[in-house]
Amino acid sequence: MGSFSGNSPPKIVHGEAGYVLEDTFPNPLQDNTAYSVVKQYFVNVDDTVAQKIVVHKGSPRGTHFRRAGPRQKVYFESDEVRACIVTCGGLCPGLNTVIREIVCGLHHMYGVKKVLGIDAEDRLLDAQGGYRGFYARNTIALTPKTVNDIHKRGGTVLGTSRGGHDTGKIVDSIQDRGINQVYIIGGDGTQRGASVIYEEIRRRGLKVAVAGIPKTIDNDIPVIDKSFGFDTAVEEAQRAINAAHVESDSIENGIGLVKLMGRYSGYIAMYATLASRDVDCCLIPESPFYLEGAGGLFEYIEKRLKENGHMVIVIAEGAGQELLSEVLRTSHQQDASGNKLLQDVGLWISQSIKDHFSRQKKMAINLKYIDPTYMIRAIPSNASDNVYCTLLAQSAVHGAMAGYTGFTVGPVNGRHCYIPFYRINEGQHYVVITDRMWARLLSSTNQPSFITAKDVIEDSRDEEEPPKTPKTQMSDDNSADDKLMVNKDVNERAVIG
Question: Where is the stretch described as Disordered (predicted)?
Answer without folding.
Answer: 453-497
